[in-house]
Amino acid sequence: MDVALSREEVAALGRLARIELSTEELEHLAPQLDQILEHVARVSEVAAADIQPTSHPLPLSNVFRADEVRECLTAEQALSGAPAVEDGRFRVPRILGESA
């Protein structure tokens, strides 16, 4: 398969991705993108209609436990080890100049 992306097509892809590419980068990336497209085309040729599409090569099973209500800490217990508490909540330093 001979795709041969032009520098203009690669530049257009860069603009869509909001990436500014220099002339040297366009020259370097065009052949690499060609190779990627060729590999995708080869995989598409091999993919058979009788093979189910999958997101993972092995079967996956849910490993999470059942969501059951259990006893948990009270607010007072959770806050008991906190270095600073304010209005029944963890007090943390203000960041990024945010106002209260």
From TrEMBL:
<keyword id="KW-0436">Ligase</keyword>
<dbReference type="GO" id="GO:0006412">
    <property type="term" value="P:translation"/>
</dbReference>
<comment type="function">
    <text>Allows the formation of correctly charged Asn-tRNA(Asn) or Gln-tRNA(Gln) through the transamidation of misacylated Asp-tRNA(Asn) or Glu-tRNA(Gln) in organisms which lack either or both of asparaginyl-tRNA or glutaminyl-tRNA synthetases. The reaction takes place in the presence of glutamine and ATP through an activated phospho-Asp-tRNA(Asn) or phospho-Glu-tRNA(Gln).</text>
</comment>
<dbReference type="GO" id="GO:0005524">
    <property type="term" value="F:ATP binding"/>
</dbReference>
<dbReference type="Pfam" id="PF02686">
    <property type="entry name" value="GatC"/>
</dbReference>
<keyword id="KW-0648">Protein biosynthesis</keyword>
<keyword id="KW-0067">ATP-binding</keyword>
<dbReference type="GO" id="GO:0006450">
    <property type="term" value="P:regulation of translational fidelity"/>
</dbReference>
<keyword id="KW-0547">Nucleotide-binding</keyword>
<dbReference type="InterPro" id="IPR036113">
    <property type="entry name" value="Asp/Glu-ADT_sf_sub_c"/>
</dbReference>
<comment type="subunit">
    <text>Heterotrimer of A, B and C subunits.</text>
</comment>
<protein>
    <recommendedName>
        <fullName>Aspartyl/glutamyl-tRNA(Asn/Gln) amidotransferase subunit C</fullName>
        <ecNumber>6.3.5.-</ecNumber>
    </recommendedName>
</protein>
<dbReference type="InterPro" id="IPR003837">
    <property type="entry name" value="GatC"/>
</dbReference>
<dbReference type="GO" id="GO:0050567">
    <property type="term" value="F:glutaminyl-tRNA synthase (glutamine-hydrolyzing) activity"/>
</dbReference>
<dbReference type="GO" id="GO:0070681">
    <property type="term" value="P:glutaminyl-tRNAGln biosynthesis via transamidation"/>
</dbReference>
<comment type="similarity">
    <text>Belongs to the GatC family.</text>
</comment>
